[in-house]
Amino acid sequence: MPDGDSLPWLAQLRSNGHSVPALIMSSIDDLEKRIAVFNGGADDFLPKPVCTEELIARMRAILRRSTQITDPTLAFGNLQFDPIGRQVFVEGQPIKIARRELCILEHLLNRAGRTVPRAQLEDSLYAFDDEVSANALEVGIYRLRKNLGQSGATLRINTARGIGYILELTDAPSA
To answer: Which pTM value belongs to this model?
Structure first.
C-alpha cells in the first residue's frame, strides 16, 4: 500500500472473516517482519523488485489453493468434477474422459455460463513448445461433447463462432 503498512489492514480484513487471497509485495528484508506478514494473514510474500512472471505464477498458485480449500468439487447440472482426483461423475456415476478433454472440461466448468475464448483454452491446454495441429481443440471439444452426451449430462458445449466456447445447461440429459 503506497501510504502505509498493509498488515493492520490485512489483520482487520481477516478478523472480519474475509478469506480473500492476499499476496504481499514489499522491500522488507528483515526475517521477523516477513514472518509477521504470514502470521498477519498473508498467503504469500514476494520481495521487491518483482519479476512479473513469478508474480503471475504465485497468484495462480494462491488461487488454486484457495478454490481447493473451500470446495474442490466443481458441479454444473448433473455433472460433478473432482479436480484433485481428476474424476468426473454424472448423476454420481463415474465417466472416463481423456486427459486433454478433462482439461478442456475443467477450464469450461471454471467459467460455466461464460464464453471462453479459443486462444485461452489453447493456452491452458498446450505447453509453449508443444506441436499442435490446427484442429486439435475442435477434436477435443468433439470428443468431450460425445462423452457428455453418452453419459446423460445435463449440460452442453456451445460454439460462439469466431470467439470460443460456452458451457451451458440443457433442460434434459444430452442425447
So the answer is: 0.58
